[in-house]
Inverse folding.
């Protein structure tokens, strides 16, 4: 916008005084433009400043007259130093006058003019040998002559000094403001960094802030790990390295910075270090890099590496200086977080040692299991831990943290038992978490399983590891929490070490239980010494008593029974599912009601199917009538067609009747309704395959009794069996053996066969999953065989191992 022209010339003393009164560049430029315009009426005046001598450009600062500078992006654009007529002035550095005949419009394309230009003149402003600005004069009526230009030349020297001092003043002021802003930024960064104490949260925050402040493509954070550097965090994109990379001394730029302790600036894309780094990264090469050590309290924490500026300009010394300051702010926070992490690792190791001492100091299996599930709670923030051991080919939960007495019938125990059984199939560690509503798992089946499990238990994380040694799988150890991030890397390492120690401790405890006569051999030797010290008469009496005892053991019959752990097998169940879609109209039974095979459990709304049935009946009747009418009219062809049509509708009628009948949901077996709140299903729409209810046949129960491999030959089908369940300690259940499994199953370090005993369950007392002990009838055998068979077999096996072939 043109400024109003002054109508008279201001005296030089007053003009110079006004210049000195102003300190900034823009007001001084306006004073110069107005004064020159007053000296040269009918001439438009523009004043330019050259503020950066290193990268000069023409910056318009003031205008007076009917003229303006072409604008770009809402403000006056900087004009290239070599552009057009201004470029000639920059090259000659002396006053220049251009007549209209010498000019093309492109020569002064930087000007926005609405009149015909008669002449353009330029007067440079030079101070201390440097071109600090220029005065541009544009005449529209008559050319500018040397005589008319003389007054402007007279004030140019003084104006140049004023412009130079204003540029210096603004540069110093801007530098101070930039320093203040940088100090404030560093203060804010230090506050942000020190607001985090967890290393896992601090590392990504530091990397992202470095990238933001330095406007970089990527930032790599290398942390000191033993005698090398480990890339622990990366913000942005740097294809040349990835998180987890390691650099040892002399292997890379970061390692070189770590070795020397000095920052590095690389601003040449042809630098050998960058060429080596870009050898396998041709798509997105590194063209500029700065790196600085992270040092806190005289100790090196790591190295920060910054890759490529986003604006494409190489990094400079200012960027390196800023990086050094940021590193100082971040190093202290990283050092504190590292110390906290180290302290936690020490605490974890102390807890691991304490738990290890506890489980290895005893051969009592129950004490070992309780120490395993409760001890790690001092450092691992889990809410429930459980351990399950292999028994008869199936995992059985043996201990749960905070629970002294397990109830096998408890829903939580059954739920964790099923989950550990599933986890044991995979053969490796399982770590499933839920963030928000999303369960993080690779397989859809796993996500569905844990969505249900987490919703039922309130947990949000599950970790399980197998207990395995060279003899095979022993069991599973699991930890759960409502916090999805409750496990750190150090916690996982502790659990894995603990699992190995637990496996050894459990093996030792079980082997101790299996060794017969462990406390008998020494007393026998004492008895032998006492016997030979007796008188002859007493020795003969003792021998006679022993002979009588041997005869009794060899001849007197005793009832032989084979016993073992017993588990109630799942009861026979049936799912009641619709074969057609529909809305439940009526339910006839509730949870716990007895039903017989074929009983109608519920009816679906069948008006659509009945309408289809009536329509089919009508079509069938019409087709039969028309066939009869055609026969009556001796039209055999028409009668045949109508008969085919009648057969078709007869088939449709049968299908419609079947659909109507399928709306009545019947029980396929006799038993008890096991679905809670079944009556609330009224109004619910069922699709094909949906389950309305579950019926359990409780009339009989099958109980699996584990028979040791060396006693399997004593058990036959159809022999009596008795079971004592832990849930009914005073009640004995009687039945008979249906069969003995043809294949053995692993149970800890031995193989067992399952004898399936069927018992009556009229009162529905027996429920799936109950445990106890079972005894199988094996006939009458000599007392010695019954009493001493097991130790005799053990002794025989040892002798055979020593002497047999």
């Amino acid at each position: 916008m043109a400024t109003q022209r002054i109508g008279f010339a201001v005296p030089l003393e007053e003009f110079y005084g006004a210049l000195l009164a102003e300190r900034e560049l823009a007001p001084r430029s306006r004073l110069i433009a107005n004064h020159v315009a007053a000296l040269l009426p009918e001439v438009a005046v523009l004043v330019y400043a050259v503020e950066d001598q290193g990268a000069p450009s023409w910056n318009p600062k003031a205008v007076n007259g009917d003229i303006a500078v072409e604008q770009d992006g809402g403000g006056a654009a900087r004009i290239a130093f070599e552009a057009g007529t201004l470029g000639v002035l920059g090259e000659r550095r002396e006053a220049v006058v251009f007549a209209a005949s010498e000019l093309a419009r492109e020569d002064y394309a930087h000007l926005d003019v609405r009149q015909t230009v008669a002449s353009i003149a330029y007067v440079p402003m030079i101070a201390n040998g440097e071109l600090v600005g220029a005065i541009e004069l544009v005449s529209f009526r008559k050319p500018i002559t040397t005589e008319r230009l003389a007054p402007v030349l007279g004030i140019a020297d003084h104006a140049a000094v004023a412009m130079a001092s204003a540029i210096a003043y603004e540069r110093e002021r801007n530098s101070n403001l930039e320093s203040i802003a940088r100090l404030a930024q560093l203060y804010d960064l230090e506050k942000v960094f020190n607001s985090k104490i967890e290393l896992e949260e601090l590392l990504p925050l530091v990397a992202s802030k470095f990238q933001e402040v330095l406007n970089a493509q990527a930032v790599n954070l290398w942390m000191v790990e033993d005698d090398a550097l480990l890339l622990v965090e990366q913000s942005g994109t740097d294809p040349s390295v990835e998180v987890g990379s390691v650099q040892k001394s002399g292997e890379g730029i970061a390692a070189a910075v770590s070795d020397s302790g000095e920052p590095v600036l690389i601003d040449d894309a042809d630098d050998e270090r960058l060429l080596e780094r870009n050898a396998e990264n041709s798509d997105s090469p590194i063209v500029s890099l700065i790196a600085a050590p992270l040092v806190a309290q005289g100790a090196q924490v790591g190295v920060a590496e910054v890759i490529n500026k986003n604006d494409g300009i190489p990094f400079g010394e200012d960027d390196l200086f800023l990086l050094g300051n940021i590193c100082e702010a971040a190093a202290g926070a990283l050092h504190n977080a590292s110390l906290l992490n180290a302290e936690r690792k020490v605490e974890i190791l102390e807890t691991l040692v304490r738990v290890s001492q506890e489980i290895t100091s005893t051969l009592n299996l129950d004490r070992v299991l309780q120490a395993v599930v409760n001890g790690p709670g001092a450092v691992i923030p889990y809410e429930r831990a459980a351990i399950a051991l292999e028994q008869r080919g199936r995992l059985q939960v043996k201990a749960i943290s905070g629970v002294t007495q397990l109830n096998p019938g408890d829903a939580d125990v059954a739920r964790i038992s099923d989950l550990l059984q599933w986890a044991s199939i995979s053969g490796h560690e399982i770590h499933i978490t839920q963030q928000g509503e999303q369960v993080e798992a690779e397989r859809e089946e796993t996500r569905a399983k844990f969505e249900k499990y987490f919703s039922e238990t309130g947990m949000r994380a599950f970790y399980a590891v197998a207990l395995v040694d060279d003899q095979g799988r022993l069991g599973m150890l699991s930890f759960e929490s409502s916090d999805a991030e409750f496990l750190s890397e150090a916690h996982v390492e502790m659990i894995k070490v603990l699992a190995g120690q637990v496996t050894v401790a459990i093996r030792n405890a079980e082997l101790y239980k299996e060794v017969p006569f462990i406390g008998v051999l020494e007393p026998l030797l004492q008895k032998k010494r006492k016997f030979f010290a007796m008188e002859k008469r007493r020795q003969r009496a003792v021998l006679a008593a022993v002979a009588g005892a041997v005869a009794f053991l060899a001849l007197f019959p005793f009832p032989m029974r084979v016993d073992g752990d017993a588990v109630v097998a799942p009861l026979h169940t049936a799912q009641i599912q619709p074969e057609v879609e529909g809305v439940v109209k009526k339910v006839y039974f509730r949870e716990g009601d007895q039903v017989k095979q074929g009983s109608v459990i519920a009816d679906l709304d069948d008006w659509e199917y009945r309408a289809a049935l009536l329509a089919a009946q009508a079509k069938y009747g019409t087709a039969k009538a028309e066939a009869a009418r055609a026969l009556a009219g001796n039209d055999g062809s028409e009668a045949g067609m109508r008969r085919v049509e009648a057969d078709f509708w007869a088939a449709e009628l049968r299908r419609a009747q079947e659909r109507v009948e399928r709306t009545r949901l019947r029980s396929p077996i006799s038993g008890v309704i096991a679905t809670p709140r079944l009556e609330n299903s009224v109004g619910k729409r069922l699709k094909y395959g949906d389950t309305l209810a579950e019926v359990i046949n409780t009339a009989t129960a099958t109980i699996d009794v584990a028979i040791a491999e060396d006693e399997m030959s004593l058990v036959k089908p159809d022999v009596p069996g008795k079971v004592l369940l832990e849930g009914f300690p005073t009640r004995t259940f009687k039945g008979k053996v249906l069969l003995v499994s043809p294949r053995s199953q692993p149970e800890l370090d031995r193989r067992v066969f399952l004898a399936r005993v069927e018992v009556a369950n009229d009162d529905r007392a027996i429920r799936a999953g109950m445990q106890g002990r079972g005894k199988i009838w094996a006939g009458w055998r000599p007392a010695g065989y019954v009493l001493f068979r097991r130790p005799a077999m053990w002794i025989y096996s040892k002798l055979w191992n020593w002497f047999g072939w």
About this structure: The two ends are 116 Å apart (CA to CA). The domain at 575-603+663-692 is CATH 2.40.50.100 (OB fold (Dihydrolipoamide Acetyltransferase, E2P)). The longest strand covers residues 557-568.
